[in-house]
Structure formats: structure tokens, C-alpha cells
Design brief:
seven-stranded mixed beta sheet; 2 domains
């Protein structure tokens, strides 16, 4: 079906606006405006040695601020550094281990309902320990293969995952500076991008378990209807830009913790798809202008900045144009790759 002239004009207008917005980003980055912290500049992983890793997590209540909307309730994971649970975050802490590590995750559940954690792509014994309210439990697995993975609640998932009980797990090969064992998966800069969305009506509901996800199909605003679209728990202009240098190989690790599919594009560049759901396809990698990350899936791509001049600013955004905050543009699933 051919797009209507009105929709075509709207998409063209948004793409033009993105290009114009990109031109103003260097000044914003320099001044610190429009970001909750400095530009993210990652470095290659340090070569590791397989070992036993113990991670202490908590499940708790918390709040986040969204553009134009403060103190939105969430359920989320946090780390316990040995002095008690930190505040719940959205997403949960990024967990990084080496291939071959025997990983034990201890969970302290501070919510008023049962919670469990599943680690798709990992072999668990048992697979899902349900931790009761005010209780604790443990999960142990061997992180056999490198890749980008999700971890998330395995109990009452439609509610608990939508409320924020999710995070990213990165398993690194023992060779530094590679996403996978293949030398063709080498990179200079990496960024984990956890994609998700929020319906503030669900998060603010007195008891989210009583929320009507379906609603009346004849009334669009009823039921579950996300109005904020997030990268690493932030909506633009609060998203942090990604910093790299001209000539760098930039590894983008997408993890879609949302309930919707999200298609991501980097304006003016191709992304080389090297893995889906942590199944490497480096030998059969392909270039994509935009690639869909299905709900609950992960995707690894490498962007080559050879020939990209320093000072360039490249919009990275949702191709379905979920780049609004409760209808206000620009916002949503939008950030920028800034080239020094």
C-alpha cells in the first residue's frame, strides 16, 4: 500500500528536523544541555580470565523522571554492593562477565509480590527460582558463549517487565576488543542500548496487577498504550550521546526489553549486523540502513566511521518515528553519535 501524501510529508519533515537538530548537538554536548551526564565513551573490554563471579541484585520500587513528567513509579533491579540495596534503576545494572565464568546471581526481593529472574540464552539449574516477597534466592549458570543478552523478571512478566524489571547482560570473549571470537568482530568503542517503552498510566496505577492491558479496542487510549520510548531508561533530550572518533569501529549492542518491536537506524550510515540474539553471523554479516530488534531480542551491529569527518553528529533513532514524549516532538527513542 502506498503511503499517503500527508504521511510522506510528515516523515520527510521529521527527517529534515533530525538533520537540523543534529547540527545543533555539538553545542548542546559542550554545554551539557539535554543530557543527564557526560557523553558516553566506552573502551575495549580488558582481556579476562574465566572465573567465578557473584552478583548481588535487589528488586525494589523506585521512581524515574521523564521529560515533562516527574516521579514516575517503577519496579526495578539494583546492585547491593555489600552495604544494602541501591535505588531501583531503569534499566537494571548492566552485568558484564567473561565467557566461561560461573555466574551466581543472588536476588533480594523487596517488592510485595513474588519475583524471579530469567536469563535467556543461559543454561540455568533450576531455570527459574521464584523469590517471595521479602525473600531471597540464587541463580547459577555458566556464561559459555559471548554475546549480548537480556535478563528480566520471569514471573507475571507482562506486568513486571513493563514496570521495569529488566537489564542487559554482556558476555565477553577472552580476547579484548572483540564482540565475539571472530577477529572480524573487533571494535574500538562499544555502547549497550537497552530499548523499552513506558505507559505512565500503568506505572502510576494503584496496583499494576489490576491494570487492564487490553482495554476497549474501539477506544485507542484505553488499555496499554506507551507514550514514552526509551534508550537506557531515558527519553530525548535526556538521552546521553555516544562519543567516538573518526575512523573508529563502533559496536552497538541493542537489547529490546520492551513489549514492542523497535527498528533502529543511524542517519547517514550503514550498520553491519554481526549477531542476532547472541548468535554470531560475522562470516555472513550484512549492512543495513535500519534493522528491527523484536521484543525480547538482542542485536549487535558495528558502524565504521572511516571517512566520517570529526565534528559530525549522527542521529540514532527509532525508524518507526517513536521520537516523541507523550506526543511532543522531538523526544523518545533518539540520541546522537558524536564524532570527534
Amino acid at each position: 500500500m502506498r503511503a499517503s501524501p500527508r504521511k510522506t510529508i510528515r516523515r520527510a519533515s521529521i527527517l529534515l528536523a533530525l538533520a537540523l537538530l543534529a547540527a545543533s548537538i555539538p553545542a548542546l554536548v559542550q554545554s551539557g544541555a539535554g543530557a543527564t551526564g557526560p557523553a558516553i565513551q566506552a573502551t575495549p573490554a580488558v582481556s579476562g580470565v574465566a572465573d567465578a563471579e557473584t552478583i548481588d541484585l535487589c528488586a525494589d520500587e523506585g521512581t524515574i523522571d521523564l521529560p515533562g513528567l516527574a516521579d514516575v513509579p517503577i519496579w526495578g533491579f539494583s546492585l547491593d554492593p555489600g552495604t544494602g540495596c541501591g535505588p531501583a534503576t531503569l534499566p537494571g545494572p548492566m552485568l558484564s562477565v567473561d565467557a566461561g565464568d560461573v555466574v551466581t546471581v543472588n536476588l533480594q526481593n523487596n517488592l510485595d509480590e513474588d519475583v524471579s529472574i530469567v536469563f535467556p540464552g543461559q543454561d540455568l539449574a533450576p531455570n527459574a527460582v521464584v523469590v517471595p516477597a521479602a525473600g531471597s534466592g540464587s541463580y547459577t549458570f555458566t556464561a559459555s558463549d559471548p554475546g549480548t543478552f537480556l535478563y528480566e523478571s520471569g514471573t507475571n512478566t507482562s506486568v513486571q517487565v513493563a514496570m521495569g524489571l529488566y537489564g542487559a547482560l554482556v558476555v565477553r570473549p577472552l580476547t579484548a576488543g572483540r564482540a565475539y571470537d571472530d577477529p572480524a568482530a573487533e571494535y574500538d568503542v562499544e555502547q549497550v542500548l537497552v530499548l523499552s517503552e513506558i505507559d505512565p498510566n500503568l506505572n502510576s496505577y494503584p496496583d499494576p496487577n489490576d491494570f487492564d492491558f487490553v482495554g476497549d479496542p474501539d477506544v485507542y487510549t484505553d488499555g496499554y498504550h506507551p507514550t514514552y520510548f526509551l534508550i537506557n531508561g531515558e527519553a530525548y533530550p535526556d538521552t546521553n550521546p555516544i562519543a567516538a572518533a573518526s575512523g573508529d569501529l563502533v559496536l552497538l549492542r541493542y537489547a529490546n526489553a520492551g513489549l514492542s518491536h523497535h527498528t533502529m537506524t543511524l542517519l547517514g550510515q550503514h550498520q553491519r549486523v554481526i549477531a542476532k540474539d547472541a548468535y554470531p553471523s560475522v562470516a555472513n554479516a550484512y549492512d543495513a540502513v535500519a534493522e528491527t530488534v523484536p521484543a525480547g531480542s538482542t542485536l549487535d551491529t558495528i558502524v565504521t566511521l572511516a571517512g566520517v569527518a570529526g565534528g559530525s553528529t549522527l542521529p540514532l533513532y527509532n525508524r518507526q518515528l517513536d521520537v516523541t514524549n507523550d506526543g511532543a516532538y522531538p523526544g523518545g527513542m533518539l540520541t546522537f553519535l558524536t564524532v570527534s
